[in-house]
Amino acid sequence: MPAIKTILIIEDDRFIGEMYQRSLRQAGYEVDWAVTGRDGARAAISKPYDLILLDIMLPETQGDVVLDVLRGDVDKIPSSRVIVLTNFDQDDEARKTLQQKVDGYLIKADITPRKLIDIISQMATVH
Amino acid sequence: MAITRLPDVFPAHLRRVIWATIALQSVLLVVLGILLWGAGVGWLQMVVYFLLPVAVLQIFAFIIIGKYALEPLDFLSRTVTQISDHPHSTTPPNLNGTRHERTGFKLMVDTIYQRSSQSQASTPAVDETDAALQATVLNTLPGGVIALNQERKVIYANKLAPVMTNSKGEHVILLDFPPNGSLEAWLNMVESSEVHAMKKWSGVQTAAPGASDRRVFDIIASYEKNATGGADTIIMLFDQTQHYSVAEESLDFMALAAHELRGPITVIRGYLDILRPELEPSLSDDQRVLFDRLDVSSSRLSGYIGNILNAAKFDRRHLKLHLREERLTDIYQLVADDLALRASTQNRLIAVAFPDNLPTVAADRNSLSEVIGNFVDNAIKYSREGGQINVTAAVDGNNVRFSVQDYGVGMPGSVVSGLFGKFYRSHRSKHTVSGTGLGLYISKAIIESHGGQVGVTSTEGEGSTFSFSVPTYASVKDKLLASDAENEGIIETSSGWIKNHSMYRG
What we know:
Strand content of chain B: 15-25%
Largest interface: A-B, 34 and 31 residues
CATH architecture of the largest domain in chain B: 2-Layer Sandwich
Distance between the termini of chain A: 6 Å
Number of domains of chain A: 1
CATH class of chain A: Alpha Beta
CATH topology of the largest domain in chain B: Heat Shock Protein 90
Distance between the termini of chain B: 67 Å
Structural class of chain B: alpha+beta
Shape of chain A: globular
Largest sheet of chain A: 5 strands, parallel
CATH superfamily of chain A: Response regulator
Oligomer: heterodimer
Helix content of chain A: 40-55%
Strand content of chain A: 15-25%
Number of strands of chain A: 5
CATH class of the largest domain in chain B: Alpha Beta
Largest sheet of chain B: 5 strands, antiparallel
Shape of chain B: extended
Order of helices and strands of chain A: EHEHEHEHEH
Number of helices of chain A: 5
Strand order of the largest sheet of chain B: 2-1-7-6-5
């Protein structure tokens, strides 16, 4: 896996989307932000992002559907890593399903932008 | 003076036997001495060839005879004490060896227990019924009754008892006991050490909330070794579903609200996190203090939300811990900065002193850091302006004990007893100190799920010490390795997980 340079945020909440975009750009990442699940899936397929930050509770096309589109039977984003960023707790079953498809699962309320940047920079050095 | 307590009878008798033996032996030696002296035997010869060997032989003889004569008496005395109503701390005789079966002492003691339980069982306050009516009474009782035999098989369950027959034809009790306080664990303990015992449980559910025919019981179980009819364990269940559903509904509502609060709190904490460094160069000292207070308050709010959601998960048995080898000092580091800031904004000082070489513990670092946060936050809230808070840890047998001591308002004993209950708020602090009443409840649940224990000592006006102990990793390693293979490679962060990540490893 290459070092992380490009990041796609899929997040419908404007306050939260802007927050991540602003802090990640300041940290030197190249950031795109999609507001709906459909736009997010399209963007993810059209450009090989190093990292996708995916919200689950999205209007119309939900995050788990986006994940099915991107990493269903065929992995359409083999060069991307995915972290789910949500405020909803997962049960054990959902966790097992998610662990197959994504690289991380974080609770937004507890992960401030600075912590997120720490985690991303660590991911870059580990892989 | 006459002996009036049963447990004192045998020890007093033992003392009399010992003194009588010593006196008798002394007289015998003196008489022998006089006779030998009369026969003209010299002193040295007398002592070496006669008195010393005789004394040694006598001592051996008394020890052997005494043991054989006194041991059954000891068994009898302890058995009678056990079945009496006298208060005592005497343990029941341990007659598990084959020797006692051969000598018949076991038979003797078992017979006493049997007769005692028969006489208790056969003397109800009023009994003008026949067996059929008794069965009807049992079946129409406004509560459940279950009887278990020595093998812990269900031999009777009335209509209201939550007992089901499975596909193999076995009767199964449908009760979801708390992880570390099950009926089985209690029976394991009492069967090896007690003759009769009793235990109560509150709020034991038949299924997780949401299930359609779910019921919640308060339970009393009584155990009687070798009871008449073979029903060693009797369980009585009082249906309290209505009573508990009120507290559950409020927790459900709070959990729902807490989920909603996570959105705005994400924005508040996130924007503070962004704004602070951007504004830092132009901030005055006063403004920095205000930012600190914002940080502290928003992280505290985040902690409350965590407690509510964890408590709701725990009640549904959804709170899953992932135990692995951790250093307590590393776990403390996860929350150290936050707690130090909380303390300094409220003029408290946290003094942390962990000894070197503390053994590692088996812990879920996120959950344990939340417990530490709750304990220290309480100490901050209930101590005085300028007060010190001591955070320490020590080895305690197979556990590591973590303690938080404050010199604050303290509590009377009446408050201490209910402290770890759900929604508990002391009447004195209800209106003056903020909180959800769930912090200590969920802390206790988390620690007990680790196989540890929480404790508190407090003196009103002087302060309190809250502590918890969790097992050392070495003491539970084998068990963990057997059960935890599936989580390999997943590193839990403070709020979520990241695959194959070196962060937070400490």
